[in-house]
Amino acid sequence: MRHVALCLLLLLSVTVQANEAERLRQAGFAGQSHGLALKNQVVLTYLWADVYAAALYAPAEVRARLAWEQQRDIRVELYYFRDIDRSDVIKAANTTLKRQQVSARLKPEVDALHARFRDIQMGDRYALDFRPERGLNLEINGEVVFSSPDDGLAKAYLGIWLAPKGLSEGLLD
To answer: Pfam families recorded for this chain (predicted)?
Structure first.
């Protein structure tokens, strides 16, 4: 009986890995984006449903974690597998920011960024692109819809995916 259970777990693991590989292929992340190299990609699954694929880009010569820690050029791209109401996205972001104890001084900037969100449709692409000399851009389907020069906002908001207790911490591995 123990062998059967072990075989079933192994089969489930292989199936999950194959599904993630297919989802990442579907997301179609390129080896480079906006002059940065692809460092890692993951699929967020919630209650057995794939929600989005995330990709992390940073300078080719820098490890992803070091780029994050030193606030170097960094880009997080999200490809959505399902429709999501903007209010649900904002609620999830605010919950994560609160859990990560982000400074209340950033609330006006976070609210301004959230004001640019739209209802997500399956296949939409959101990106957060940070450059120290420019600041943070939010792109929706390739269009810049929000910009901020505030490095603190960039660190906090990218932290939703990259910081400890973030949604896609595995991107830094």
So the answer is: Chalcone_3
